[in-house]
Amino acid sequence: MEATQAGEIEEGQRRFPLTDEQLAARLYQIRLDLDEQGRLSQGYAAIGIDDGYVANLRAARAGTLSDIELHDLVGPQIERFRLAGNVTVVPRSREWRRLAQVLCEAELEALSRMVERDEGDFTGTPPETSVVRTSLPDEPVPPVPLSDLFDDYIKSRQALGKHADGGRRWTVAIKSLVKHLGNSDARKITKRDLNSWLDKLQGEGISTRTVANVYLASVRAILRWAYEKDILPTNVSEGVRQETRKKVRSRERGYTTAEATRLLRSSIGYVPAEPANPSNREKSCLTAAKRWVPILCAFTGARVVEVAQLRKDDVRQEGEHWVIRISPEAGSVKTGVYRDVPLHRQIIALGFLDFVKSAKSGPLFHNAVKPEKFLDGARVTSGRLSEWLNRTGLVPDGVQPSHGWRHRFKSLGREIGLSDRVVDAIQGHAGRTAGDSYGDVSIVAMARVIDVLPDYELEPALVKTDEG
Q: Cα separation of 218 and 286, whole Å?
């Protein structure tokens, strides 16, 4: 208990310090408020004022009482102020005696007002004393730690099926802002603070796009939510903007047919190099990811991490069609809604179903065991796959490994004249118009579109080992 109280006192010392006179003024007001409430009770009229108590208060103010006698008079009040973090006096010190005497004066002044009220005088005009002249500061407002706001915001989003990763990418932004501010109290953040923080981030070499889309976006979302929930009185991020430099594009965002074919040949024919030390052999799940994830992305337009999180049970037959289920249960889906996507004939012809059949239960492309770790496992695999593709020169400049297939899938669909609504459903994109929300896109409709996609010329497949 002592350790807990000490911790509370330490915290209070930093937050709510008051002078002796301010403490006396507070006690004075507390006594008058209690008196006013007491007069609403029928039995209050029978309560008198103890003359001995008044005499002791006067003696205390005159400095003629011992420490023990002072403690009997106002010791409990001093202790309450100490625990509240208003004062740090050591019992029986000179500072403690002075505070005790000032509090006794406050008690005397309050008793004088009570006597006046007993006589019908409610003007409340006391003589000019140090107790009455002292103005009290505003009641201390508890801080709102930005980290706590962040945690509460993420929990509220997760309850809606969002931020399955716990807001991991936003964590760096929150920590950066707290470090810049020098404190974590969200109540103290100003618009100027945010603007100076954005300038600092750019000075550190962080791109304006990342500053806008990650750092500022995360803080704005949290502060707006806190304001809407009446946790903060204002939203200081409103109106704060980060200008971004328009991205110069020197080429298409997706793979060309030649680039896609080259990558898929290397991927399907991939064989890991044999290390000198067998313990350094590449994990079988990563080898499988390098072989199958690229071509699955090529024919589904899915995100790399969505394919990397596939489990054995996510591959199954629906009527005449083999499908993969891209599900939030396996890790994360940006829309929070599962989707079944038919497999292209070339994927089946290359032996994907045989691979799935021989795989053990659980994730196909990572080793995570617990469901809550599936997303992390898929992300690790996705990252290592991107590293491998970049290292081997299979990803052209200007193409993002994680989105190149999505752009190509969309572009290819337009070239062939496929239904945008069905292509969107295959990729997990929301409908573009209100009318798109009516009706469902069936597996048969998706299979009809996917069957139109041409095969890639993968023969002869290149047997590609990883030398790095």
A: 32
What one-character-per-residue DSSP string does 238-304 give? TT-----PPPP-SS-SSPPHHHHHHHHHHHHTEEEPPPSSGGGPPPHHHHHHHHHHHHHHHHH---H
Tell whether 380 and 275 lie within a shared domain: yes
> Which are the contacts of 330, defined by CB distance < 8 A and separation ≥ 6?
309, 310, 311, 314, 363, 374, 378
Same domain? 94 vs 177: no
Last residue of one domain, picked from the residues 105, 133, 161: 133
CATH number for the domain including 434?
1.10.443.10
pLDDT tens digits for range 416-436: 888 888 888 888 876 555 445
Decide: helix, strand or coil at residue 342.
Answer: strand
Instruction: Assess whether 279 and 207 both reside in one domain.
Output: no
Give the pTM: 0.57
CA dihedral 210, 215, 220, 225 (to 10 degrees): 120
- Which residue has tokens 């400049």? 397
| Residue 238 maps to a domain | no
For residues 102 and 31, give the distance between their C-alpha atoms in angstroms, rounded to a whole number: 15
CB within 8 Å of 235: residues ≥ 6 apart: 223, 224, 226, 227
Owning domain of residue 203: 146-228
Q: Which residue has the tokens 């979302």?
A: 221
Residue 139 covered by a domain: no
The residue length of the chain stands at 468
Q: In what order do the strands lie in the sheet with 321-326?
A: 315-318, 321-326, 339-342
* Residue listed under structure tokens 């989003």: 157
Q: Which of 133, 160, 185 is the last residue before a domain boundary? A: 133
Provide the pLDDT confidence category of residue 135 given band limits of 50, 70 and 90.
low
pLDDT band at 295, cuts 50/70/90?
very high
Indicate whether 12 and 129 sit together in one domain: yes
Whether 133 and 106 have beta carbons less than 8 Å apart is answered as no
- Judged by DSSP in three states, 401 sits in coil
Cβ distance 396 to 257 under 8 Å? no
Q: Which amino acid is at 322?
A: W
Side-chain-side CA neighbours of residue 213 (13 Å)? 7
The torsion region of residue 360 among left (phi > 0), alpha (psi -120 to 50) and beta comes to: beta
Between CA 187 and CA 146 the distance in angstroms is: 9
3-state secondary structure of 134: coil
Q: Determine if residue 136 is left, alpha or beta; phi over 0 gives left, psi from -120 to 50 gives alpha, anything else beta.
A: beta
Q: Are residues 350 and 413 in the same domain?
A: yes
- Which tens digit of pLDDT belongs to each residue from 204-242? 988 888 888 899 999 999 999 999 998 988 899 988 888
